[in-house]
Amino acid sequence: MILFVAALMLLFEPRVSSTSSSLETQIFQYIDDHQNEFIENLKDWVAVKSDSVQPAFRKEVTRMMELTADRLRALGTSVMLVNQLPDGQSLPAVLAELGKDPHKPTVCFYGHVDVQPAKKEDGWKTDPYTLTEIDGNLYGRGATDNKGPVLAWINAVETFRALKLDMPVNFKFIIEGMEEAGSLGLDEVVKETEHFFSDVDYIVISDNLWLSKKKPALTYGTRGNACFFVEVECGEKDLHSGTFGGIIHEPMTDLIALLDSLVNMSGHILIPGIYDDVATLTEEEKQLDESIEYDLEEHKTIAGVNKFLYDTKEDILLHLWRYPCLSIHGIEGAFYEPGIKTVIPSKVIGKFSIRQVPHMALATVEKQVTQYLEEVFSKRNSSNKLKVSMPMGTMPWIADIKKPMYLAAKTAIKTVFGEEPDMIQDGSTIPIARMFQNETRKSVMMLPIGAADAGEHSQNEKISRYNYIQGTKLFASFFLEISKFHGQLQEASNTTSVPTEEP
User: Fold this and answer.
1) How confident is the model over 96-105, as pLDDT tens digits?
2) What is the pTM of this model?
3) 62: which residues sit within 8 A by CB, 6+ positions away?
4) Catalytic pick from 60, 145, 179, 201?
5) SS3 sequence, 107-174?
6) DSSP string for 239-308
7) Is 309 left (phi over 0), alpha (psi -120 to 50) or beta?
8) How many CB atoms lie within 10 A of CB 33?
9) Which of 121, 157, 363, 466 is most buried as measured by Cβ atoms within 10 A of its Cβ?
């Protein structure tokens, strides 16, 4: 048994080479030669205002899904459109496949082509729906989240077809148009199309960013997210502060006190027991974090702040990935427009979230938060009514970086970028990774191509020409590498036997 395990470890030792094979050279040259064409395709997609957050743009989201289906059909894929939305609403998710060779691995790519809201007056220096190149950066809503990466995958497959090369893997795509609105209905689509995933070996998601502006990364974990509403109500109508101020318990005063009780100035969550179930940091995680190149000053610049809560790389990464954090997002019911309105709101709702980490359970977090806020509120002796709810909760996700998919991706990154990737976790929440892992029982990997300063969800979102084109090369190289690693895995399982012990 020991010899068998040792043989497998040697078999999957990542192979690095400073030069590409002749096949990769041919592929990379084609991608370089057609990069302007690939950018024009991205320009066409960015022009579609596929904002899934605002219902008024639902027709544009549908149009974007149809364009995506057409683009995949042009690759020779068979396309199936499945309605994603419940309750009689209509919006298709795209499922597509190319190749059914049983001797090849099947790689499924997930992406989305809807976007966050964007308006020029929000602070964009260019029209958010007109892809604009400035100093090598391609600015536009969806450029990096997630239209650019989706097209990079398509560009890579198209390159193999254009060069009349044998496809190294079978391809499947699942593309949605509701990710920015919470991927509503996608879990049901996956359940209802279980047959589509039955022969999938690997699922790849490219919907996040590197940790650095320059160094590539592979992501193997994300935090979860528990979102809370805390509602304080006084009566049925707003009141004049001159008439009633000073003689009633004001809801806003109660709410501010409740929100202020959640976290201290050091970012430490004050809810009792909240840290009890946090998983212990492993030695492997410590070693991975130590090898990461992290520029604190660069990240301060990206964030536009002068100081972080912590001063070392180790503390920063731990509090980004391995410890929960609590963020307060807003107050509903309060007057927020310019000027002064001397009103006492009758009901206000505070909104906050806790990014939870392994092994924090959502039900436990919900109970801890509710009990704590009720206790704090009771000590105020307020006559107002309190309601605490958790309208949405998603679990953390973690992957095994020793799987062939991660080893293949590391080799491809070394080939394209000439250096080993940072092995990172992501402080944000990407529920689709956990959902795919739970529902399909397949290996899931996150393979980002956007740099840390890409500005996803923000003004002036961008992907650099370099990242877009090199990302296309990375995906093409990954196809070749996963085919090799998968073949070696199959060969090892077929030819290596484990001797049984004599009775």
Assistant:
1) 999 999 999 9
2) 0.86
3) 90, 91, 92, 177
4) 179
5) EEEEEECCECCCCHHHCCCCCCCCCEEECCEEECCCCCCCHHHHHHHHHHHHHHHHCCCCCCCEEEEE
6) EEHHHHTTTS--HHHHHHHHHHTSB-TTS-B-STTTTTTPPPPPHHHHHHHHH----HHHHHHHHT-S--
7) alpha
8) 9
9) 157
Kindly provide the b/e burial profile for residues 254-263, where b requires at least 16 CB atoms within 10 angstroms of the residue's own CB.
Answer: bbbebbebbb
Q: 101: which 2 tokens?
A: 């060779």
Residue with tokens 């027709």: 59
Angle of helix 465-495 relative to helix 35-46, nearest 10 degrees? 100
Q: Out of 51, 114, 201, 207, which one is annotated catalytic?
A: 114
Match 């929100």 to its residue by tokens: 259
Is 481 assigned a catalytic role? no
pLDDT tens sequence across 462-493:
999 999 999 999 999 999 999 999 988 877 76
pLDDT value, residue 496 = 55
Q: Are the C-beta atoms of 448 and 17 separated by less than 8 Å?
A: no
Tokens of 408: 């293949």
DSSP lists the bridge partners of residue 26 as none
Contact between residue 296 and residue 317 where contact means Cβ atoms under 8 Å apart:
no
- Dihedral of CA 440/148/178/207: which sign? positive
Backbone angles phi, psi at 174, to 5 degrees: -130, 110
Contacts of 152 (CB under 8 A, 6+ apart): 38, 206, 449, 468, 471, 472, 475
Give the helix/strand (H/E) hosting 489.
helix 465-495
50 within 8 A of 57, measured Cβ to Cβ: yes
| SS3 of 53-81 | CCHHHHHHHHHHHHHHHHHHHHCCCEEEE
The set of residues, in sequence order, having a beta carbon less than 8 Å from that of 115 and lying 6+ positions away, is 49, 50, 51, 52, 141, 142, 145, 147, 180
Looking only at the bridges linking them, the beta strands covering 132-134 and 137-139 are antiparallel
Active site annotation includes 13: no
**Total number of residues shown for the chain:** 503
| Nearest Cα to Cα of residue 467 among 291, 296, 141, 215 | 215
In SS3 terms, 224-245 reads as CEEEEEEEEECCCCCEEHHHHC
Contact 45, 147 (CB under 8 A): yes
